[in-house]
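Lab channel / #folding
Pinned by the channel admin:
"Please post every new chain as: sequence first, then the structure tokens as a reply. Keep commentary short and put observations after the output so the thread stays searchable."

First post following the new format, from NK:
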Amino acid sequence: MLKEKKRKCGSSKGSVFPFFLAISIFLVVQPFINQLYAGEPDRVDQFLKIAQEKSLYKDRYWHILLHYQDTMFGIESQIDDQAFFLAPDGKTNPEAELEETIKLLFQPDNEAAKKYVCRYNARLSWLKSALEIDPALYTERVCDEVEQLTLKSASLIFPTYYMNNPASMFGHTLLIINTGYQNKRLFSAVNYAAKTETTSGLNFAVSGLFGFFKGYYSVMPYYKKIQEYSDINQRDIWEYSLNLTPDEIRRMVRHIKELDKIYTDYYFFDENCSYNLLYLIEAARP
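Reply from TO:
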């Protein structure tokens, strides 16, 4: 009995060695593991440093994407919807908006970054180029909704004036994008218009003149606009082909994606349908 007890005690002591061995290996390997996982945060800091050195927040294309304009009070975006901005003061602070965009788009957590990849796809594409990021990095951060589209051509559309409707007395402008359909009626029509619900002529005029309407971009099949302008209102529709390349059209589509459900204050004489389409064309070809 005594010998048996000694043998059991000896076996319990022997089992301690593997435990200490595992602890020792962990302590040796842990610094390398930490270094491996710390690479991504360091990479974000590196991107922020490059952006600062290049003063990318002053870049004209960044101002196009954010609709920044110089005003008598400083730089301000003409986008009025706060949901468009990532930084709290992003509407008036291009630098803060750029830094917050880099932090969120290139954060280490792929799952957390996913919700920003399509939502801010134009920013992501431009930053990859401006920061000279290795194409092998972030290959999974791609918006399939944009990249899988077939884009062949784009045209500027002008439905002429409609005298029976004061809102259409100067006509309208929109874009159509050839997405690979044979029938032009199935092309995508990109429209910017004020969201109105009033039936009062006076209220309509005052709201349109002083920016009380909210204007939204929308995408719909072209045949719906043809029905609205030609079939119903009997307005002539003029089409002007744009000499944009497929890559330039894709840049335009990326920016259209960013403006989905985002409003700007609509002004009848200046910040109207024609003016706001210029941002899309500039996003395609600065």
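NK: The beta strands are 68-71, 74-77, 153-159, 174-178, 188-195, 213-221, 237-242, 263-266.
TO: also worth noting, Residues 16-37 form the longest helix (22 residues).
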